[in-house]
């Protein structure tokens, strides 16, 4: 009986730990931003056209930041599985940047004060600034 070797094994680093940390980080940072928003004059009241005015409260920042981080994580995993690691990461990165740019529009039409719009836009920047680089660097293509 002969033994065959598949060659040297390379250690794969776990991608879920930094990705989970990124999701927790965006939720935490955006929660802090929401909590200090009133200190900069943001009343966090939005009144989209045709709808009643509503106040955006900090738990919404927590839930939406974590939720969209998890959606991005799932989308990257799906893209890598369906398209291969390199192509999947490229498609996901282009889509993530496009979604980030598109998400700048809703706060501008939300019928909110300037300070509130700035806070809402800042939270989109936080998500993109943390999630995109972390997910990109922990992709299987890295």
Name the average pLDDT. Answer: 91
Q: Give the total of beta strands.
A: 2
Q: Evaluate the radius of gyration.
A: 19 Å
Q: What gap, in angstroms, lies between the N and C termini?
A: 38 Å
Enumerate the spans where pLDDT stays under 50 for 5 or more consecutive residues.
Answer: none
Main pleated sheet: 2 strands, antiparallel
* Protein structure class: mainly alpha
The helix tally amounts to 5
- β-strand percent reads under 5%
Q: Approximately how much helix is present in the residues?
A: 55-70%
Summed up, the domain count is 1
Could you name the key traits of this structure?
two-stranded antiparallel ribbon; 5 helices; mainly alpha
Account of the protein in words:
There is one protein chain. The protein is an all-alpha fold. The protein has helices at residues 16-36, 58-83, 85-102, 105-108, 114-137, and strands at residues 45-46, 54-55. A two-stranded antiparallel sheet has the order 1-2. A hairpin with a 7-residue loop joins strand 1 and strand 2 (54-55). Helix 2 runs antiparallel to helix 3 and helix 2 (58-83) runs parallel beside helix 5 (114-137). The longest helix has 26 residues, at 58-83. The protein is elongated. The mean pLDDT is 91.
Indicate the topology.
Layout: H1 16-36, E1 45-46, E2 54-55, H2 58-83, H3 85-102, H4 105-108, H5 114-137
Antiparallel strand pairs: 1-2
Helix pairs in contact: 1-2, 1-5, 2-3, 2-5, 3-5
